[in-house]
Amino acid sequence: IANALTSVRTAWELIFAPAIENASSAMSAWTNGEVSLALDEVREVAVEEVAEALDLTDELSTMVMLAVGGAMGGQLILTFDRENACRLIGSLLNRDVELDQEWGELETSALQETGNILSSAYLNAITALTGRRFWPSPPMVTEDYAMSVVEQAVMTQALTEDRVLLCRTRFSRL
Fold this sequence. Notes:
- By secondary structure, the chain is an alpha+beta fold.
- A hairpin with a 3-residue loop joins strand 2 and strand 3.
- Helix 1 crosses helix 4 and helix 3 crosses helix 4.
């Protein structure tokens, strides 16, 4: 069984690696070379184990959420702590964004566009590799407890599936 699981994991990593590379190139262009992405892990877990598998805390997080339409449904959720969300927004707007600063339309729009760019690059690469069409919904930005948001996102899939595929991606500042 261990060999079969390793084989399935490797197959998923082969599918997601070009998608991450594509999204990393898009993110690098979007941030003027300041940020890149790397694939940390791909694994399948039971729906009820998602929060534990992602090691989510009960602290507030900033999330950009997009539904995935097409051959297989799902959710793309970018999660940041407040400090890193402010740093990303600041680098995109070329100005400081304070932790306690309330975000206006421009700051929210910068995060939404980040979600658009990453999800489009990611899903385009998966579409090219699999021959199946996928597309993102418009992005929604929220500040909430990551655990509850992820659990809600997975509930939709729990209606038809008992397992979900998790793809953990790391953002790195260059």
